[in-house]
Queue: 3 jobs
Job 1
Amino acid sequence: MRVEELRPPSGARKRRKRVGRGTGSGHGKTACRGSKGQNARSGRGTKAGFEGGQMPLQRRLPKRGFRNPFRKEYSIIHVGDLNRFPRDTVVEPDLLIESGLLKKGERVKLLSDGELQHPLTVRVHQVSKAAIKKVEAISGRVEVIGS
């Protein structure tokens, strides 16, 4: 068997239904819409979630909570994750992206989990107080940058 001899199995490919093309086609006149009613009209159809006039589900359920449109999401980096960088490196978001610890366009928050073996200068968007203590305990520096 060669590539040009390949065929889909019989019945796998159907012809599309051409409606409204005369009575001889079997799909003429009302074009498979039936006669009269909302769905037979032009510009037909209902919006998503319409339940025939019954109160739709999204309006029957109670409202809960609040979604803050100004919320800022932060990716978390732990102090222990910074040991992969050599001594006295300036660790910035660009360097974290290159090393695979961060995705492009994300903000960074440094948390205190783990121990740091050598001093670094860390530039992040947010940092916990405990993380600052750990970095500064081995004579490193932490700088908070704006986003």
Job 2
Amino acid sequence: MLTTARPAIALLLCATLAPPSFGASLTLSKPEDAGFSSERLKRIGPVVQRHVEAKDLAGAVTLLARKGKVVHFAAQGNMDFDSGKPVRTDTLFRLASMTKPITAVAVLMMMEEGKLVLSDPVSKYIPEFKNPKVAMWNLPNDPRGAGVRLVSADREVTLQHLLTHTAGLTVSPEGPAADFFRKANLSQEGISLAELTKRVGGLPLSFQPGTQFLYTGTYGFAVLGRVVEIVSGMTLDQFFRQRIFAPLAMNNTFFNIPANRLADVAQVYLRTEQGLAKQNPPKPLPAGVDLYNGAGGLTGSAEDYLQFCQMLLNGGQWNGARLLSRKSVEMMSDNAVGDLDLANYPEPGQNLRGYGFGLGVRVRKSNGASGWLGSVGDYGWAGANGTYFWIDPKEQIIGMVMMSTRVGILRTEFPNAVYQALVD
């Protein structure tokens, strides 16, 4: 594994040719061999370093590959604000919602095996989703004072709705279904994934399925993960390890972090009114209780996630392993929500206007609307703790920034620094 040279900029670019596949340790290619300017790529380091010096975050790892060649892989800053322990390129980061695209791939794998179709109602697998109701304000002009009523949904929630965040799931104590959400105790500790998804299924919806985009956070892809468990006969942890991680040699990605790797996990900090605050690691579940959350439960390394991204960029196969067909990847990365866009997704520092949504990933529909560099058809997603990746099929680019404090503007600055360095 690549090691650090000094805390500020831990890894400099190498001028050696990359092998045809990524191994346990990445070899860096000369940027010019992949159509980049070495001189212009040097702008990435100062962009990240400004945030480190401003204490916006403790440290970060950035990675860039094009046409199967890794041309930039750098660690800057520290694991936390207290110890002075430098971030390494093999540091583990809590991936949060970067788990969702992996869950989407698992669903598509089950689709390819004929075990489900995306138009299936969720109630086929979790009966509590049967005959959903929609919560509506009685008086739209005076909603809270007039109370709510429940009306029948005009259709059932499908797997496709969950994959595209158009299901209408109630995911927060806001809106007409707020009281139902609070009473459901979805955050109650010690419940299984099966129990969590039953409770989600029993909630009224916030709108008619398929009519709006509303990010489902912790819950929508948790339900999809449960469906994968039901149709595959494995826990989601077993499925990911056996069917995705082992074939892609993702040996440093975990639901349950091994005890000997806990010291390799970057400290998560949450932004509060009082400044950055340490987030405590998740509490262990009681013995015999499984909750592998396909919406955000994974921890892993940048190098591991690169294997997953390269599999998608290669049309579903990598290192001799085929997880999906090319056509499934094309469907996953195509806009599936029509004219709905992500302008209402709250991400300070990153304008998602001009983006639609595919299956577990946002998809760029327009180059001009967002105001930051990319290509029509690029796709990717992010995590609540700051992690972010994108795949650009047109330019054959994979970009990734791993951090443990959410600095939204860096998700714009890093792609800008990448694309300005293209010279071919």
Job 3
Amino acid sequence: MKTRRFCPKCGRPVLKSQNREYIFQCNACDEDFCRFEVFRKTDLSQVLQIRKVEFENIKSRGGYIQSLKKPFHIFN
């Protein structure tokens, strides 16, 4: 389900959490978040900046980069 909320660590879209203690989860980071921790669509400039940093980190580690728009990335 699309939530229009983004992970504060990697900037990827988050999903509704199956854990009752948390509301959102990021499958890329394997983290759960509360409502106040995630970014909203109004914070898109910060989200794009986080994605660029994450993109550079993956690139420097030699990981496989799909796209900045894809929700998950695959490492070799």
